[in-house]
Amino acid sequence: MTQERWKNIVEWPLVCAALVFLVAYSVQVIANLNDTQSASLDVVIGITWIAFVADYIMMLLLARSRLRWFFTNIHELAILALPMLRPLRLLRLVTLIRVLHRTAGNALRGRIVTYVLSAAVLLTYCGALAVLDAEENAPGANIVMFWDALWWALTTITTVGYGDHYPITATGRVVAGALMISGIGVLGVVTASVASWLVEHVSAEAAAAIETQEEPLRAEIRSLTAQIENLSAKIESLAEQGSVN
Protein backbone atom coordinates (compact mmCIF):
# COMPACT_ATOMS: atom_id res chain seq x y z
CA MET A 1 0.00 0.00 0.00
CA THR A 2 1.23 3.51 -0.83
CA GLN A 3 0.85 6.71 1.14
CA GLU A 4 -1.52 8.08 -1.50
CA ARG A 5 -3.81 5.06 -1.24
CA TRP A 6 -3.77 5.28 2.55
CA LYS A 7 -4.70 8.98 2.34
CA ASN A 8 -7.65 8.15 0.11
CA ILE A 9 -8.83 5.45 2.52
CA VAL A 10 -8.60 7.46 5.75
CA GLU A 11 -9.43 10.92 4.41
CA TRP A 12 -13.13 10.92 5.26
CA PRO A 13 -12.74 9.00 8.55
CA LEU A 14 -10.17 11.61 9.62
CA VAL A 15 -12.54 14.40 8.60
CA CYS A 16 -15.23 12.84 10.79
CA ALA A 17 -12.74 12.43 13.64
CA ALA A 18 -11.66 16.06 13.24
CA LEU A 19 -15.27 17.26 13.35
CA VAL A 20 -15.99 15.15 16.44
CA PHE A 21 -12.86 16.55 18.05
CA LEU A 22 -13.91 20.11 17.13
CA VAL A 23 -17.34 19.70 18.70
CA ALA A 24 -15.99 18.08 21.88
CA TYR A 25 -13.18 20.61 22.18
CA SER A 26 -15.59 23.51 21.58
CA VAL A 27 -17.94 22.36 24.34
CA GLN A 28 -15.05 21.79 26.70
CA VAL A 29 -13.48 25.21 26.12
CA ILE A 30 -16.54 27.43 25.72
CA ALA A 31 -18.31 25.93 28.75
CA ASN A 32 -15.02 26.11 30.70
CA LEU A 33 -15.59 22.67 32.19
CA ASN A 34 -13.40 21.42 35.00
CA ASP A 35 -11.60 18.09 34.91
CA THR A 36 -14.53 16.17 36.42
CA GLN A 37 -17.13 17.70 34.11
CA SER A 38 -15.05 17.17 30.99
CA ALA A 39 -14.09 13.56 31.73
CA SER A 40 -16.40 12.11 29.06
CA LEU A 41 -15.29 14.70 26.53
CA ASP A 42 -11.67 13.84 27.31
CA VAL A 43 -12.46 10.25 26.35
CA VAL A 44 -13.89 11.41 23.01
CA ILE A 45 -10.89 13.67 22.39
CA GLY A 46 -8.58 10.80 23.36
CA ILE A 47 -10.21 8.47 20.82
CA THR A 48 -9.80 11.04 18.04
CA TRP A 49 -6.20 11.58 19.16
CA ILE A 50 -5.59 7.81 18.83
CA ALA A 51 -6.98 7.98 15.28
CA PHE A 52 -4.55 10.79 14.44
CA VAL A 53 -1.65 8.88 16.00
CA ALA A 54 -2.54 5.78 13.97
CA ASP A 55 -2.60 7.89 10.82
CA TYR A 56 0.81 9.36 11.65
CA ILE A 57 2.31 5.90 12.26
CA MET A 58 0.89 4.51 9.01
CA MET A 59 2.13 7.50 7.02
CA LEU A 60 5.59 6.99 8.51
CA LEU A 61 5.61 3.25 7.78
CA LEU A 62 4.41 3.76 4.19
CA ALA A 63 6.90 6.54 3.40
CA ARG A 64 9.53 5.72 0.78
CA SER A 65 12.18 7.44 2.85
CA ARG A 66 11.03 7.18 6.47
CA LEU A 67 13.84 9.29 7.88
CA ARG A 68 13.20 12.11 5.42
CA TRP A 69 9.43 11.99 5.98
CA PHE A 70 9.97 12.02 9.74
CA PHE A 71 12.04 15.20 9.64
CA THR A 72 9.85 16.99 7.09
CA ASN A 73 6.77 16.24 9.24
CA ILE A 74 8.30 16.81 12.67
CA HIS A 75 5.53 19.32 13.45
CA GLU A 76 2.98 16.50 13.21
CA LEU A 77 4.82 14.59 15.92
CA ALA A 78 5.04 17.71 18.07
CA ILE A 79 1.29 18.35 17.79
CA LEU A 80 0.56 14.76 18.79
CA ALA A 81 3.18 14.34 21.49
CA LEU A 82 3.49 17.59 23.44
CA PRO A 83 0.66 18.38 25.89
CA MET A 84 1.56 22.10 25.87
CA LEU A 85 0.61 22.21 22.18
CA ARG A 86 -2.93 20.99 22.85
CA PRO A 87 -4.58 23.94 21.04
CA LEU A 88 -2.48 23.21 17.95
CA ARG A 89 -4.23 19.86 17.55
CA LEU A 90 -6.81 21.94 15.71
CA LEU A 91 -4.35 21.95 12.81
CA ARG A 92 -5.72 18.49 12.02
CA LEU A 93 -8.76 20.30 10.68
CA VAL A 94 -6.77 21.23 7.57
CA THR A 95 -8.00 17.84 6.36
CA LEU A 96 -11.28 19.63 5.70
CA ILE A 97 -9.51 22.07 3.39
CA ARG A 98 -8.02 19.18 1.42
CA VAL A 99 -11.47 17.66 0.94
CA LEU A 100 -12.90 21.01 -0.10
CA HIS A 101 -10.13 21.31 -2.68
CA ARG A 102 -11.32 18.10 -4.33
CA THR A 103 -14.91 19.30 -4.48
CA ALA A 104 -14.15 22.86 -5.54
CA GLY A 105 -13.70 22.02 -9.20
CA ASN A 106 -11.11 23.41 -11.54
CA ALA A 107 -12.51 26.92 -11.92
CA LEU A 108 -10.15 29.54 -10.55
CA ARG A 109 -13.01 31.58 -9.17
CA GLY A 110 -14.43 28.50 -7.45
CA ARG A 111 -11.10 27.82 -5.79
CA ILE A 112 -10.87 31.41 -4.57
CA VAL A 113 -14.31 31.33 -2.97
CA THR A 114 -13.75 27.89 -1.44
CA TYR A 115 -10.33 28.57 0.02
CA VAL A 116 -11.05 32.08 1.22
CA LEU A 117 -14.30 31.24 2.98
CA SER A 118 -13.27 27.89 4.40
CA ALA A 119 -9.77 28.92 5.47
CA ALA A 120 -10.87 32.24 6.97
CA VAL A 121 -13.81 30.77 8.90
CA LEU A 122 -11.84 27.75 10.08
CA LEU A 123 -8.78 29.74 11.14
CA THR A 124 -10.86 32.37 12.92
CA TYR A 125 -12.97 29.86 14.84
CA CYS A 126 -10.04 27.61 15.73
CA GLY A 127 -7.90 30.58 16.71
CA ALA A 128 -10.67 31.84 19.00
CA LEU A 129 -11.03 28.41 20.63
CA ALA A 130 -7.29 27.97 21.04
CA VAL A 131 -6.68 31.36 22.63
CA LEU A 132 -9.73 31.00 24.89
CA ASP A 133 -8.46 27.62 26.06
CA ALA A 134 -5.13 29.19 26.97
CA GLU A 135 -6.48 32.41 28.50
CA GLU A 136 -9.85 31.88 30.18
CA ASN A 137 -8.47 30.64 33.52
CA ALA A 138 -5.28 32.72 33.58
CA PRO A 139 -5.05 35.43 36.29
CA GLY A 140 -5.46 38.90 34.80
CA ALA A 141 -6.57 37.61 31.40
CA ASN A 142 -8.91 39.81 29.33
CA ILE A 143 -10.06 37.05 26.97
CA VAL A 144 -12.40 35.03 29.16
CA MET A 145 -15.53 34.78 26.98
CA PHE A 146 -15.92 33.07 23.62
CA TRP A 147 -17.27 36.20 21.94
CA ASP A 148 -14.25 38.17 23.15
CA ALA A 149 -12.01 35.44 21.76
CA LEU A 150 -13.88 35.46 18.45
CA TRP A 151 -13.63 39.25 18.21
CA TRP A 152 -9.90 39.03 18.97
CA ALA A 153 -9.44 36.34 16.30
CA LEU A 154 -11.28 38.44 13.70
CA THR A 155 -9.21 41.56 14.37
CA THR A 156 -6.01 39.51 14.41
CA ILE A 157 -6.51 37.50 11.22
CA THR A 158 -7.50 40.64 9.31
CA THR A 159 -4.37 42.40 10.66
CA VAL A 160 -6.51 45.21 12.16
CA GLY A 161 -5.46 44.61 15.76
CA TYR A 162 -7.47 47.06 17.87
CA GLY A 163 -5.69 45.91 21.00
CA ASP A 164 -8.80 45.87 23.19
CA HIS A 165 -8.27 42.14 23.75
CA TYR A 166 -4.89 40.41 23.78
CA PRO A 167 -3.34 37.19 25.14
CA ILE A 168 -1.12 37.32 28.20
CA THR A 169 -0.04 33.66 28.47
CA ALA A 170 2.84 32.11 26.55
CA THR A 171 0.57 29.58 24.84
CA GLY A 172 -1.92 32.30 23.94
CA ARG A 173 0.82 34.37 22.34
CA VAL A 174 2.04 31.36 20.37
CA VAL A 175 -1.52 30.94 19.08
CA ALA A 176 -1.64 34.67 18.29
CA GLY A 177 1.58 34.48 16.32
CA ALA A 178 0.35 31.49 14.34
CA LEU A 179 -2.93 33.28 13.60
CA MET A 180 -1.11 36.42 12.45
CA ILE A 181 1.06 34.45 10.05
CA SER A 182 -1.96 32.51 8.82
CA GLY A 183 -3.89 35.73 8.29
CA ILE A 184 -1.09 37.19 6.19
CA GLY A 185 -0.97 33.92 4.22
CA VAL A 186 -4.72 33.97 3.56
CA LEU A 187 -4.63 37.60 2.44
CA GLY A 188 -1.63 36.84 0.22
CA VAL A 189 -3.42 33.94 -1.43
CA VAL A 190 -6.51 36.09 -1.98
CA THR A 191 -4.48 38.91 -3.52
CA ALA A 192 -2.50 36.57 -5.77
CA SER A 193 -5.61 34.66 -6.87
CA VAL A 194 -7.57 37.83 -7.66
CA ALA A 195 -4.59 39.28 -9.54
CA SER A 196 -4.24 36.04 -11.51
CA TRP A 197 -7.94 36.06 -12.34
CA LEU A 198 -7.80 39.71 -13.46
CA VAL A 199 -4.79 39.04 -15.70
CA GLU A 200 -6.52 36.03 -17.23
CA HIS A 201 -9.76 37.97 -17.73
CA VAL A 202 -8.02 41.00 -19.29
CA SER A 203 -5.91 38.73 -21.53
CA ALA A 204 -9.02 36.95 -22.76
CA GLU A 205 -10.76 40.26 -23.52
CA ALA A 206 -7.66 41.61 -25.29
CA ALA A 207 -7.38 38.44 -27.39
CA ALA A 208 -11.07 38.70 -28.33
CA ALA A 209 -10.67 42.38 -29.26
CA ILE A 210 -7.61 41.66 -31.38
CA GLU A 211 -9.41 38.84 -33.13
CA THR A 212 -12.39 41.11 -33.82
CA GLN A 213 -10.12 43.78 -35.32
CA GLU A 214 -8.12 41.26 -37.32
CA GLU A 215 -11.12 39.85 -39.19
CA PRO A 216 -11.78 42.99 -41.37
CA LEU A 217 -8.04 43.18 -42.14
CA ARG A 218 -8.00 39.54 -43.18
CA ALA A 219 -11.04 40.10 -45.41
CA GLU A 220 -9.35 43.09 -47.04
CA ILE A 221 -6.16 41.10 -47.55
CA ARG A 222 -8.16 38.30 -49.18
CA SER A 223 -9.85 40.85 -51.46
CA LEU A 224 -6.53 42.43 -52.42
CA THR A 225 -5.05 38.99 -53.05
CA ALA A 226 -7.95 38.12 -55.35
CA GLN A 227 -7.52 41.40 -57.24
CA ILE A 228 -3.78 40.81 -57.66
CA GLU A 229 -4.46 37.30 -58.96
CA ASN A 230 -6.95 38.72 -61.44
CA LEU A 231 -4.48 41.35 -62.59
CA SER A 232 -1.78 38.72 -62.92
CA ALA A 233 -4.10 36.59 -65.02
CA LYS A 234 -4.92 39.56 -67.27
CA ILE A 235 -1.25 40.46 -67.66
CA GLU A 236 -0.39 36.89 -68.60
CA SER A 237 -3.25 36.86 -71.08
CA LEU A 238 -2.09 40.12 -72.68
CA ALA A 239 1.45 38.85 -72.78
CA GLU A 240 0.37 35.67 -74.59
CA GLN A 241 -1.65 37.72 -77.13
CA GLY A 242 1.37 39.98 -77.77
CA SER A 243 3.65 37.02 -78.35
CA VAL A 244 1.17 35.52 -80.85
CA ASN A 245 0.96 38.80 -82.81
TrEMBL record:
What is this protein identified as?
Potassium channel family protein
Compartment(s) of residence: Membrane
Which residues are listed as membrane-spanning?
A: 12-31, 43-63, 112-132, 144-162, 174-199
UniProt membrane topology term? Multi-pass membrane protein
- Main location, first listed in the record: membrane
**Protein's GO biological process:** monoatomic ion transmembrane transport
| Entry superkingdom | Bacteria
Outline the extent of the Potassium channel domain.
Answer: 125-199
Q: From what organism does this protein derive?
A: Arthrobacter humicola
Give UniProt keywords alphabetically. Answer: Ion channel, Ion transport, Membrane, Transmembrane, Transmembrane helix, Transport
Quote the InterPro entries the UniProt record gives. Answer: K_chnl_dom, VG_K_chnl, Volt_channel_dom_sf
Transport recorded as keyword: yes
